[in-house]
Amino acid sequence: MGILFLLHSGLKFFVFTPEGTEKYFISLGLPGWFGIFVIFWEFAAGTALILGIWPRLAALLIAPDLIGFGRSDKPAEIADHTYARHVDWTARLAFDALDLRGATLVGQDWGGLIGLRLVAEHPDRFARVVAANTGLPTGDHPMPDVWVRFRDVVATSPELSISRLVAAGCQSTLSPEVLAAYDAPFPGPEFIAGPRAMPALVPTRPDDPASDANRAAWERLTEWDKPFLVAFGDSDPITGGMAPILKRALPGAADLDHPVPTAAGHFPQEDAGARPAAGDEGTGRGQRRHAHEGGGDHLAMVVARRRVTRLLLLAAGGLFLTGGRLLAASSRLVSRVLGERELRLGRDGHDDLLGRSHDADPADTVGRASTTRYPSGNARKRRLAFEDRSMYGRR
Hints:
Oligomer: single chain
Largest sheet: 3 strands, parallel
Number of helices: 17
CATH architecture of the largest domain: 3-Layer(aba) Sandwich
Number of domains: 3
Order of helices and strands: HHHHHEHEHHHHHEHHHHHH
CATH topology of the largest domain: Rossmann fold
Distance between the termini: 79 Å
Low-confidence stretches: 281-303, 349-360, 362-395
Shape: globular
CATH class of the largest domain: Alpha Beta
CATH superfamily of the largest domain: Alpha/Beta hydrolase fold, catalytic domain
Structural class: mainly alpha
């Protein structure tokens, strides 16, 4: 991905030139300077990805809608949905279509039930995991009573409102716009098969069709030592009990400062998405704890290096942006100068074709100015029709 960004930046810079890129962006109705900014950003992002400097600032964010939950076509029958199918559908998108590598999984609710299976079955494709209010049930332990009631309501309610279900899992009050966005993919009962099916797909018995696959996933995850961050809201009665299990069972979760979104229910992205979590003051989120003496100083040095890196990237961006605009202006100036030089050379060359010396009196030359302005094949043919006293002598 980093190499792709660098190649795309180089294409704009060396082939299209900054001036051409500016004109293209202007033709799209965008400000010309934005084209220069894009060149810089692609260059900086590619360099950051290759060097591993702040890759999250340049990384590609992919947030797929689960099948049956987006605004595209949906399976119409509840029976079309199975746990295994959702895992397979998502794997085909992530690996067959997008060929993702070095990915960071952020899974919440079913994003974790499906995503953790992908991590376990394709461990080499992932670099780290963030699990938020989710789990990987096997049916070997009973689900909370509140979840059982939720499953029954979804299965039996004559009319199912997705926004009401989401709002019930939040501690904060969602705005009408947010609620409308949750309802938008489901304009009628014929579109609701996915939401009705999913609660029943969670393994609740040891012999559930997905139990064996989830047990195998647990075995692989307990050997997976890449960073595993647990970020559960502190007020979720459904999945809250999974947080300590994940922290204790997974080696990648050891010695990490796990953020805890406060006053957040089952959907921490809605309740606390825009504010820091408890234990996250912007200095040590997701960093390994340093138990040895001097660990605090080491963490301070890490923070300082991050701030210096930010400043260097901003400074490099400013220089690149300014340099790009100067180069574009210089290119326009050089083009203008070279154009005028070609015009002068053209006039001189045409005078020579007509046989006029550079010292001749302009008044001694007979002919129209339009004929002597530019050298061309037609002008060379016309020269025989001209009488140049400087060439043939005065009479």
